[in-house]
Amino acid sequence: MPLKQRNVKFDWSETPIDWIPNEPYASYFINEINLILPAGEFWFCRLYNKALPLVTDEKLKEDVRGFIKQEAMHARGHSSATEEYLAERGIKTERNQQLMKWLFDVVLDDTPFGKKVPTWLERRWLLARLGLVATIEHMTCVLGMYVLENKKWDELNSDQVLLDLIRWHGAEEVEHRSVAFDLYKHLGGDYLSRYYLAAIVVPMIIGLWVDGAANIAGQDPRFAKKKPAVYKPWMWVEWFKASRKQLLPNPLWLLVQQLPYFSPWYDPSKEGSTQLAQDYLNQSPAAMAAGAIAANMKVPA
Length: 301
Hints:
The structure is a single chain. α2 (33-51) crosses α5 (119-149) and α5 (119-149) packs across α9 (193-217). The protein is globular, with a radius of gyration of 19 Å. It has helices at 24-31, 33-51, 58-86, 94-107, 119-149, 152-155, 160-175, 179-186, 193-217, 233-244, 251-256, 274-281, 285-298. It has a single domain, classed as Ribonucleotide Reductase, subunit A, CATH 1.10.620. It has 13 helices and no strands. By secondary structure, it is an all-alpha fold.
């Protein structure tokens, strides 16, 4: 089935900061993904548009185009949460956003730190970054399955709009989970590179997530005395506590979920459940509304 872009929209007018009732830490922790993802996903799109002319397999080329469209919509969805939800409720997001912009627009740019890559290294630099995306996409598939299967948030009457955002996104991550790895292999990605790529990606994602969550949680008077920071044990202890309450994935569990990626026989299509993803996309309020609008636009006047 071809990957399709679902032009979702979200109404943030009623979503509280503690979108998981009485759980401010977990609420901030998950809200940080709204600040992490847009810059990275727009970078994915630029990178894949650069790689697209090199793809010789027509089915993969179609999948890459679908991937680009879905990732662009993910970025817009989380940007709307940042601008219309977090910023509107007084959360200062600039510091976290600028950090992500620096990472993707400076460090991982076609011209890293403004330096032109030698011609003989251009293909290798492109392939290394495609490998980073493939490694990230394994983790996002894992997280996608987590948000689709976690019913604890529903039991606590968590905000349905934010739940729909992360579950719609998670479902599409599961849906397109094979594309990044297939592209990386198609263009010459090798097995051993997965080790150093994972050594970069996993600490980077976890570190950025905790650091960003600490920054926005630290703006809340309830956490003023804690002065949250990525290097303070309190942030990590609270993460473990929240995971025991099934509000967040356990960090050690996340690390264990990376192990299949190191197998020589790794096949992303065997990870996750396409059926579970499709089931959610068929009932997601935002995806259903987007589908209805798209269908109406196709009806002749």
